[in-house]
Amino acid sequence: MEKYDSIWDMYQKKGMSRRSFIKACSAMTALLGLAPAMLPKVVKAAEKRLPVVIWLHGHECTGCSESFLRSSAPMTSDVILNMIALEYDDTLGAASGEFFEDHLQEVMKTYKGQYILAVEGAIPADPSGGFCMVGGKPFLNQVKEAAAGAAAIIAYGTCAAWGGIQAARPNPAHALSLNEIIGNKPIINVPGCPPIPEVMTGVIAHYAMFGNLPPLDNKNCPKQFYGNRIHDTCYRRPFFDAGMYANDFNDAGARAGWCLYKLGCRGPETYASCGNMRWWNGLSYPIQSGHGCIGCTSKNFWDNDPFYRRLPEFAGLGLGNIDKIGAAVTGALAVGITAHLATSAVQKKKRDQKELEEEKEKAEAAERRSRGKD
User: Fold this and answer.
1) Residue 57: its H or E element
2) What DSSP string describes 107-151?
């Protein structure tokens, strides 16, 4: 098997300067959400050997791979060619057939306990074994075999992380999430249908840099990408706070950019980076395009239908019915405005009085100076 060089070695082979290498490490430090003081550690990590990656595909639509290919920071080509050694991926790989499957076996044997396993798609666990065959074998068997020798596992997309659409009722293939199949390995959940491109590349870049998992939340999702609710980073949030909601996709409120909560937006209970990172190099995201969040990073989101029926309560804060929230917020807003006007009036009166006194003192001083000259 080929010995894989470090990122720095690959820069040297391509005739690129140390300066370019340090600039790339600086960009990676920012992407991973690390403080500038961490740059020396990132540089040191980039001088280590490239990690071997095996990427398997189960019950999925390949949307996660399509998203991964569109990452711009870092670019997917940089990740695949310069940051990792992608040894097996039956979607992106040029090889196929028996030779490619033999290569997979060789990689798992040679790098046992060292490689990263990326899984895209749910795992059908139907006992008949007739769903999702790869190389003439059930995908369930392939996942278990590959997971046994993996150092860490990344569950890319909601299908791998939670089961996704394949696990939606009535789930004829008995599709399960990766966590339900593999219980003795560290798994990084990267949900989304699909996940944001830079989230996908950022997670694997972190492991490639430091050789360990990024900080995870209680659902094993990376905190730097799933630490905030979409509701908390949404540019329509001020309208929610003011009790201003669109009641129809064609009404004046929708055209004015009001909150889409009453039209089914799941933003208040969905954790993702859509509101701050957005999609396609920061261009837009569903709420910016006028459509509410459907909660695609959440468990069982396909069964949380219909998507255009609002949630019965404002999840997470225990505030009760949204109509009452809106009325209370509107009432509080009116009280606040009245109090603000009253306070402003008092402050203006004080300022005017002070200005009059200062003008009077200036006039008296001028008069004394004039008398002194005479």
Assistant:
1) strand 52-57
2) HHHHTTTT-EEEEESBEE--TT--SSEETTEEHHHHHHHHHHT-S
Dist CA 317 CA 313 (whole Å):
9
pLDDT class for 333, splitting at 50, 70, 90? very low
Mean pLDDT confidence for 85-91 = 90
Q: Using CA atoms, how far apart are residues 326 and 246, in angstroms rounded to an integer?
A: 12
**What is the distance between the alpha carbons of residues 152 and 72, in angstroms, rounded to a whole number?**
25
Task: Tell me what the mean pLDDT of segment 83-87 comes to.
Answer: 86
Tokens read off for 18:
């140390």
- Residue 330: enclosing H or E segment and its boundaries? helix 322-373
DSSP state of 175: E
Task: State how far the Cα of 369 lies from the Cα of 26, in Å rounded to an integer.
Answer: 66
Q: How far apart are CA 355 and CA 351, in angstroms?
A: 6
Q: Which of 86-100, 125-139, 157-171 has the lowest mean pLDDT?
A: 125-139
Asked whether 188 and 200 are in contact (CB, 8 A), the reply is no
Task: State how far the Cα of 304 lies from the Cα of 158, in Å rounded to an integer.
Answer: 14
The Cβ of residue 101 has, within 10 Å, a number of other Cβ atoms equal to: 18
263: nearest Cα among 303, 320, 322, 316: 322
Q: Give, in order, the Cα–Cα distances in Å from 203 to each of 94, 223, 246, 290.
A: 24, 11, 36, 29
The arithmetic mean of pLDDT across residues 178-190, rounded, is 92
d(CA 21, CA 23): 5
Which three-class secondary structure state does DSSP give residue 190?
strand
The tens digit of pLDDT for each residue in 275-307 reads: 999 988 888 999 999 999 999 999 989 898 788
